[in-house]
Amino acid sequence: MTTLLAELARAVRAALEGAVAAGRTPGAVALIGRDGDTLCHLAVGERMVAPEVRPMEPDTVFDLASLTKPVATATVILQLVARGDLALDTPLSAIIPAFRGEGRERATIRHLLTHSSGLPAYWHLATHLGETVPPAERRAEAISSICALPLEYAPCEGFVYSCLGFIVLASVAEIVGGRALAELAREGVFAPLGMADTGFLPGPELVARCAATEQLPEGTLCGVVHDENARWLGGVGGNAGLFGTAEDLARFVRMVLRGGELEGAHILQPETVAPMTSAQHDRAGRRRGLGWDIDSTYTPAIRGDFQGGFGHTGYTGTSIWVHAPTGGYVILLTNRVHLGRDREIAPLRREVATLAARHLLRPGSTGGPT
């Protein structure tokens, strides 16, 4: 390990240990890379503290929460676009006819991907539709209800980060792709990329390696999606539900940085990666790519000292920031909600990203595995 890499590893470990000591999260995994090299991959703290204590490991499987949006849902949608089965400017009403009236016909697939469709941020499905809806009928009920919600604004006239929009996109993928989102993502993205520990509805072997999330009255969630809407929908929401490891996410990021290809697996095309990772609306506070955050109100917490790039956060305490000019990326996975929803992880996100930026932008910094 070079001196600079040793300094980076020490600084990142100190940041992670400080967050654990401050009670912001029981544990964390950080992976900083550049191109194909892993510069730093550390695990600190515990992946579970109740009902038993389990240590955090570098290959811990996390509930990725809203990282589901760019990594699974947006990627599958863009694969359908690349195949000619769908167009970004296709009106949503052409696929889901119930989305009509009061200007809804203007909303397109592009608007859903950039959170500019007019749909509200969130709507608690279990509260409004109830737990008695049969599982096989829940997605249809959810889509019907979401389509009837009043719009927050006319499509393309505003920005509201909308989990509901990505729940709708999961149904678009299923209708157009002919299979459920989980299958499309597994067969078209995760399996070709060798992301063996990533997917929806993890089986027993992966659950045993999962970081626990919220402690509910009925028990601690571990290997079961934290997001209530995704959970009501059977674990696959489109907005959430994906589980995975830092190493698998690094493979995904490297694919994006290389224009959609990794080790012979062609997942996307350069012409679909470009709009995915660049601003589709040039208005302050709402600069989003197709699934990714470019420079919105959410950006400062994950970008640190990087200027430019793209990334995303997840409510459970997960985040990715990618800096294409250096080929660098920062993956931070925590289970902060295991200690309660009030635990603030933004300071750690900024600190780790800034440490990575100072290394990657430093003259003479070198890559290579730790």
Commentary on this structure:
The protein has 370 residues and is of the alpha+beta class. The chain has two domains: 3-67 and 190-360, Beta-lactamase, CATH 3.40.710.10; 73-177, no CATH class. Helices cover 35% and strands 17% of the residues. The strands form five sheets. A six-stranded antiparallel beta sheet has the order 3-2-1-15-14-13, with helices on both faces. A hairpin with a 2-residue loop joins strand 9 (261-262) and strand 10. The longest helix is centred in the N-terminal third of the chain and has 19 residues, at 3-21.
In the CATH hierarchy, the third-tier topology of the largest domain is known as Beta-lactamase
Number of extended strands = 15
Structural class: alpha+beta
Radius of gyration: 20 Å
User: Main sheet, how many strands, which sense, barrel?
Assistant: 6 strands, antiparallel
For the biggest β-sheet, the strand order reads: 3-2-1-15-14-13
Order of helices and strands: HEEEEHHHHHHEHEEHEHEEHEEHEEEH
Tell me the β content. Answer: 15-25%
Quaternary form: single chain
Task: Give the rounded overall mean pLDDT.
Answer: 94
What best-fitting shape do the alpha-carbon axes yield? Answer: globular
